[in-house]
Write a structure and sequence with these properties.
With 409 residues, this protein is mainly β. Helices cover 4% and strands 49% of the residues. Keywords: Signal.
Length: 409
């Protein structure tokens, strides 16, 4: 069997803890003094108005509506306790507390469900863009200045926001990924409109460590276990942490034999170490650094609209194509296992910001925004049948799901 044969690493973050908290024998031994709860909440950005709407997956009821300045890109934190609503053209990042949190107790995890709320802290810049978390640090890269704002999530939740700011270089459409005491940062071209040329490692003071590694047009990143991958016009760059206090290592891996296309969006596996990326308009690629076959390209029947990984089912990925078909990809075998029509067609012709469906995984459901119909469609991840819909005001577009299962006392 091709691919993922060398994958052995497990992640024990809050998301995995929530999904698996009630699965252990030890947890069942203590069932007499607590109950169990599964709770998922969706956060949906409107395509027209500056608003994020929260809805409960269980019954579709409102969990809050949060006014911001413009249509946001939504980034969840690793813990799921906060969501960053990036409004680049407005120069702001709003932060929403999801109201859902998990606490690790070793043999089980507790879930706490409260009200979602818009936090008072707003992260401001010229044109903030990518939000990336790693090693307990969140980095917000400002395309308009080239500055990087660094902070732990706890500062936002505690109301004691005291970020650090690094100024490593010129303004550009860039990114910064925290790795321990270091940062992996994009390197700008000759001017802000020129493509990025590579990646470099910075220390805690913002000083470069080692040489720049070429990564033409660097765009897109994801983390799987402790490893980051970054998309390039000619392949990927893999950032691997070193032992002790040494800086992470950067390795460029070319995709010369995959045909026309490149990786510019990446998702990272949770319980297995792999990456899933786009490749041209009508394919995806499973990436396993260190394997004999690093890249496995999977052609799709039509152009791709969006794709997502299932955090609780490590080998499952879901891909929506412009014909309205949802596809289940087994990332281990690299094959499409089943497909089903879930929306009317959404052509990929037109502007890249036109309202098109987006995917999020909420437990046993794939949540799909349907902007034309004003709906979120909840599709079973088991049989690919639509179980129900949730009507959403405005034009539902970007979407994030948070939640899981845990014990309640």
């Amino acid at each position: 069997m091709n691919g993922l044969t060398s994958v052995t690493k497990l992640l024990f973050g809050a998301t995995a803890l929530g999904a698996l908290a009630m699965g252990s024998a030890a947890a069942q031994d203590h069932a007499h003094d607590r109950g169990a709860e599964t709770h998922y909440r969706l956060f949906i950005g409107d395509h027209v108005d500056g608003v994020v709407r929260a809805v409960e997956v269980e019954d579709g009821s409102s969990a809050g509506e949060f006014a911001i300045e413009q249509t946001p890109a939504l980034y969840p934190s690793a813990s799921g306790r906060t969501i960053f609503a990036v409004q680049g053209d407005a120069g702001k990042v709003a932060v929403i507390a999801t109201g859902i949190s998990f606490e690790d107790h070793g043999d089980h995890g507790d879930i706490d469900v409260g009200d979602a709320r818009l936090l008072p802290t707003t992260i401001e810049g010229v044109k903030p863009a990518h939000v990336i978390e790693g090693s307990g640090t969140i980095a917000v890269f400002d395309d308009g200045s080239g500055n990087i704002t660094l902070f732990p999530e706890s500062q936002l939740l505690d109301g004691k926001f005291q970020p650090r700011t690094l100024t490593p270089g010129a303004a550009h459409h860039g990114l910064a990924a925290p790795m321990g005491d270091f940062l992996v940062v994009s390197v700008p071209g000759a001017d802000p409109e020129a493509p990025r040329v590579g990646l470099m490692v910075l220390d805690a003071e913002g000083e470069r460590v080692g040489e720049i590694v070429a990564c033409p047009g660097v765009h897109g990143q994801a983390q799987s276990a402790r490893v980051f991958a970054f998309g390039c016009k000619d392949g990927i760059v893999v950032a691997t942490p070193s032992r002790g206090s040494a800086a992470p290592t950067l390795e460029h891996i070319a995709t010369a034999d995959l045909g026309e296309g490149n990786v510019s969006t990446l998702k990272g596996g949770t319980a297995m170490q792999f990456f899933l990326g786009n490749y041209g308009p009508s394919a995806v690629v499973v990436i396993e650094p260190g394997a004999d076959e690093v890249f496995r390209k999977i052609d799709l029947p039509t152009r791709r609209v969006d794709f997502a990984l299932d955090p609780a089912k490590p080998r499952d990925a879901y891909i929506l194509t412009e014909d309205g078909q949802l596809h289940h990809l087994d990332v281990v075998s690299g094959t499409i296992e089943k497909s089903a029509r879930v929306t009317e067609p959404y052509s990929m012709d037109g502007h890249w910001r036109d309202p098109r469906p987006r995917l999020a995984v909420a437990g046993d459901h794939i949540a799909i925004t349907d902007p034309r119909e004003g709906l979120v469609r909840l599709v079973s991840s088991d049989n690919f049948e639509e179980e129900r819909t949730i009507a959403v005001e405005g034009v539902p577009y970007t979407i994030v799901a948070v939640g899981g299962s845990g014990a309640t006392h």
